[in-house]
Amino acid sequence: MKDFKIYEEMLDTRQYNALRSELIEQNSADIAQLIESVKVDKAVLIFRMLPKDMEAEVFAELPPDVQESLIGIFSETEIQSIVEELFLDDAVDFIEEMPAGIAKKVLATAKPETREEINRLLKYPEDSAGSIMTVEYVDLKSEMTVREAFSRIRRTGTDKETIYTCYVTDSERRLVGVVSAKRLMLAERDEIIGDIMDDTNLITAETLEDRELVAHKVNKYDLLSIPVVDMENRLVGIITIDDIADVIEEEVTEDFQKMAAILPSDKPYLKTHPVLLAKNRVVWLFVLMAAAMITGGIIGKYEEAMLALPLLGTFIPMLMDTGGNSGSQSATMVIRGMALMEITPRDFFKVVWKEMRTGLLVGLGLSVVNFVRVWITFRGHSEYSEDIIRISATVSFTLFFTVVVANLVGGILPIIAKKCKIDPAVMAAPLITTIVDALSLIVFFALATALLL
Amino acid sequence: MKDFKIYEEMLDTRQYNALRSELIEQNSADIAQLIESVKVDKAVLIFRMLPKDMEAEVFAELPPDVQESLIGIFSETEIQSIVEELFLDDAVDFIEEMPAGIAKKVLATAKPETREEINRLLKYPEDSAGSIMTVEYVDLKSEMTVREAFSRIRRTGTDKETIYTCYVTDSERRLVGVVSAKRLMLAERDEIIGDIMDDTNLITAETLEDRELVAHKVNKYDLLSIPVVDMENRLVGIITIDDIADVIEEEVTEDFQKMAAILPSDKPYLKTHPVLLAKNRVVWLFVLMAAAMITGGIIGKYEEAMLALPLLGTFIPMLMDTGGNSGSQSATMVIRGMALMEITPRDFFKVVWKEMRTGLLVGLGLSVVNFVRVWITFRGHSEYSEDIIRISATVSFTLFFTVVVANLVGGILPIIAKKCKIDPAVMAAPLITTIVDALSLIVFFALATALLL
């Protein structure tokens, strides 16, 4: 579905039957995009054209603001039918995003059993495995034959979020094994599930486990779904890979935002109001502005040096920018490495040692080039000609020092944050820049005072 | 497998049988981690203990440096057996990572058919769909019955990378439909594949399509695998979701690195030599250092202003840092939005309008606070008391201007880059900081000269 225009046209010219038969051929993600792109009255019309079994699929793909406006128009029967059709995790997602009033209305129209299930899932803390799991999985018993398993899957499979991994539970709902649909399809019909299932080293998530850690497990073990168990190892739900993909996308976006000193928000940029954008950005800017004033104070303290040799001021942007950039390079590498679990706090000294050597190399390279460049620039100026070597040396040594310190601070701070259970991503560029700036200017003016004045 | 120590101990005390029966219970990802954590001679011992069918699985999970040292020790027969057992996409991945000499040796030991297949896949450009696809998929014919399809899957399924989506081709290998294992399992045995398959709006990738776009499709349509077709719509391979997850992880890491002005590398941080780390970091630092010298030149031009009122210098870090931080906030939001395909170049004016309003709000907030803070700080200093309002106004207006410009530049540059087919991620913080710094200082000194001197 590339061009929505023709569908809108069909709607405007009331070719409802033609449009309807076009729509049922489309993917639900595309229909959702079409509905999102038109005005709400047309959206409702299109939505009502969909066959029953597509309604929930399309609805789950819609962004919360469109869901909200549709719900505002739908009748109670329509709302009920959609909520019943939705997979439970999608229903929970949707209700979580709605304003309290609408969430209440939706829950009130749901059937009692569904409402109870939804309410149970709504109680799990945000970002926990429980909050993103669904209860629609295939459960088997270990004494079943493959034939019985198949007939169970055929009987109940349509409404399951996945049938490709089946979970084997005992009489107390404890998870005892896992068997894939592949294994079932390749097995003989009268084999016993207990004999063909995997029952050692099962990979599971706990209801309260951080969803980011769960996503890491799913990726590491290449799973299509992961079972979620409670503290008594009872199976309470599963999380499928499509939801894991969403978790990863959200967590990465959050990391990008934190690293740019923005309060994280999962609302798409184009749908976020400038007031909210501004609010999310201004908090850290205030903090960092205050910190930068301290750096400014350092320059103020060395007013005399600046008066004696105003040339010094021209090196400040270069020193500050290079320090900030170096520090943010190291911090980015370490923060990303920790997000991928390639680096853990135990690697502290490895990181220090690596950043030190990297910093020395980079610092050396930059400062040699800088020495030559300052020397070439000012050798023609008679006023500086006798000081030229000392000026070059001061700037270059400060640069060298700045880069080495920036690398170390950028590498170390995220690990310390992690150790203190603070998100390492907030220790990124902006904060490190401010620290490195201050150190760099102190060294610069101290050296300049000693060597040049 | 939490603690590798006991396995190493079992190895050291030659409890080979016990260790072997422990190992076969483990997940291949964990065994790979164990092998990675021990010295190479032990690694070989452990590897040789694995049953044939686990060898390839574990080998595919190993990082390239460990694969390389193992290959150096393995006999030709061992290498051949591993290459034959590997899924083709894993074999290609592995050979691509090896130094030329070893790649050649591995290819030479492979069986002719395998070698030919591998060589064909090696020809696809890096980052293309072709380069990450595998040819081990289930293909069905539309005239088959479900029963025949099942027996085909049971006959050939073990060696397929996934059996959960089956691809239906015609006599010329053109893709005509897709049928999921779920659909097959829920269907009657004598239904015809052609009747139950999906044959409209098939989601496919082209061999030369960028793998990032393919990953986006797989996520958007919640697929478990995507068929890859050539220009004549002939099915040539599939890409499974686990490989898509790897692509996304690599692309995100690359974005993080580019945004921190680092040349991207997919080697894990802890395994990268400081010389390579330094090389990847120093290139952009040179460029940005040169640019910052231009900014420094601006300060140099206003030497007289600085001499007349040295206080001006103390505001420079605050202006530079806040400008850099604001710009990087906007750039991050827009770059991430584009990576998620939420923002396209067509949204240019929407972004401009949003960033302008956000910038005005943030700028207003920061500059009011700054005005008050400067006024409070300096009202006690007799030397500034008569100028205090004008000083506060100069700094605050520059700050306001800086933030608005930073927001606009940060929002616009990534979109322009995208439009010019440059990766927007390189237009991130460092570059924007440099541009904003220069503009900010020019305005600052111009205002100061006009108002204060």
Task: Give the gist of this structure.
The structure is a homodimer of 453-residue chains. Chain A is elongated, with a radius of gyration of 30 Å. Chain A has helices spanning 5-12, 16-23, 28-37, 40-49, 52-61, 64-73, 76-85, 88-97, 100-109, 112-122, 129-132, 146-156, 181-186, 193-196, 211-220, 241-259, 274-301, 303-308, 316-339, 348-378, 388-419, 429-452; strands at 139-140, 165-169, 175-180, 205-206, 225-229, 235-240.
Strand-helix topology:
The structure is a homodimer of 453-residue chains.
Chain A: H1 5-12, H2 16-23, H3 28-37, H4 40-49, H5 52-61, H6 64-73, H7 76-85, H8 88-97, H9 100-109, H10 112-122, H11 129-132, E1 139-140, H12 146-156, E2 165-169, E3 175-180, H13 181-186, H14 193-196, E4 205-206, H15 211-220, E5 225-229, E6 235-240, H16 241-259, H17 274-301, H18 303-308, H19 316-339, H20 348-378, H21 388-419, H22 429-452
Parallel strand pairs in A: 1-2, 4-5
Antiparallel strand pairs in A: 2-3, 5-6
Helix pairs in contact in A: 3-4, 3-5, 8-10, 15-16, 17-22, 19-21, 19-22, 20-21, 21-22
Describe the structure.
- The structure is a homodimer of 453-residue chains.
- Chain A has 453 residues and is mainly alpha-helical.
- Chain A is 65% helix and 6% strand.
- The first copy, chain A, contains 22 helices and six strands.
- The first copy, chain A, has helices at residues 5-12, 16-23, 28-37, 40-49, 52-61, 64-73, 76-85, 88-97, 100-109, 112-122, 129-132, 146-156, 181-186, 193-196, 211-220, 241-259, 274-301, 303-308, 316-339, 348-378, 388-419, 429-452; strands spanning 139-140, 165-169, 175-180, 205-206, 225-229, 235-240.
- In chain A, the strands form two sheets. A three-stranded mixed beta sheet of chain A has the order 1-2-3. In chain A, strands 4-5-6 form a three-stranded mixed beta sheet.
- In chain A, a hairpin with a 5-residue loop joins strand 5 (225-229) and strand 6 (235-240).
- In chain A, helix 17 packs parallel to helix 22, helix 20 (348-378) packs antiparallel against helix 21 and helix 21 runs antiparallel to helix 22.
- Chain A is elongated, with a radius of gyration of 30 Å.
- The model of chain A has no long low-confidence stretch (mean pLDDT 90).
- The interface between A and B is large, with 109 and 110 residues.
